[in-house]
Amino acid sequence: MTLKQLLYLVPLVIAAASCTHAPGPSPSNNNNNNDTTTVTDPANPKFKSDILPILTANCSGCHNNVTANDEYNFTTYETTIAKKFVKGDPEKTKIYDVITEDDDEDRMPQAPNPRLSADKILLIKNWILNGAPNN
After folding, report:
1. HSE-CB of 94 using CA atoms within 13 angstroms
2. Which of 86, 87, 109, 121 could make an S-S bridge to 132, C-beta 3.0–4.6 Å?
3. Is 34 helix (H, G, I), strand (E, B) or coil?
4. Is residue 32 situated within a structural domain?
5. Does residue 43 lie in a domain region?
6. Residue 52: inside a domain, yes or no?
7. Residue 27 in contact with residue 119, Cβ under 8 Å?
8. How far apart are CA 127 and CA 87, in angstroms?
9. Is residue 29 part of a domain?
10. Own/partner long-range contacts of 116-121 (Cβ < 8 Å, ≥24 apart)
C-alpha cells in the first residue's frame, strides 16, 4: 500500500470506527421476513415489482399453484384478482380483509408467521384503491 492510499484510508477507518448509531430496519423491510421489496412510489405501487414480491414472500407458500388453500392463489396477477377481489375497494377485497384482521386466528399470514408491516399493508391498499392495475 502506498503512502497516498494510506492517507486516504485512515480517515475512512476513523470515521467508521467512531460511528455510534446502530443501523435500523429499512422502511420497506421492517417485519423480519427477509423480504427486500424496494418501492419507488408508495402511492402508486406496481404489481410486478411491489405487490407480487410481498405475496410471494408471505402468502404463496400456502396459496400457490399446488396447494391454493381455500382456492386462493397469489402467484400471478390473474390468480391474485380471481376470487373475492374488488378493484378500487380494499374493504370489499378478501386479501385486504385478512391481512388487516385483528383476530390472530383469522389474520393472514397466520401465526407463527409475522403480520405484514404497516408499510406493506398500505402498499396493497393503495394498489387496490388505484384499481389493482397489472403493471
Report:
1. 12
2. 87
3. coil
4. no
5. yes
6. yes
7. yes
8. 9
9. no
10. 116/31, 116/54, 116/58, 117/30, 117/31, 119/27, 119/28, 119/30, 119/42, 120/28, 120/31, 120/35, 120/37, 120/54, 120/58, 121/96
Structural domain range at position 49: 39-135
In 19-133, which ranges are continuous DSSP H helix? 52-58, 77-80, 94-99, 118-129
pTM value is 0.70
Q: Which of 78, 53, 70, 82 is nearest to 108 (CA)?
A: 70
Residue with cell 484510508: 9
CA distances to 30, 34, 55, 110 from 77, in Å? 25, 22, 11, 22
Q: What is the rounded CA–CA span in Å between residue 14 and residue 43?
A: 40
pLDDT by 10s per residue, the chain, length 135? 665 554 544 444 343 333 333 333 333 333 434 444 467 799 999 999 999 999 999 998 899 999 888 999 999 999 999 999 999 999 999 999 999 999 999 999 998 999 999 999 999 999 999 999 999
Looking at the structure of the chain, the number of domains it has is 1
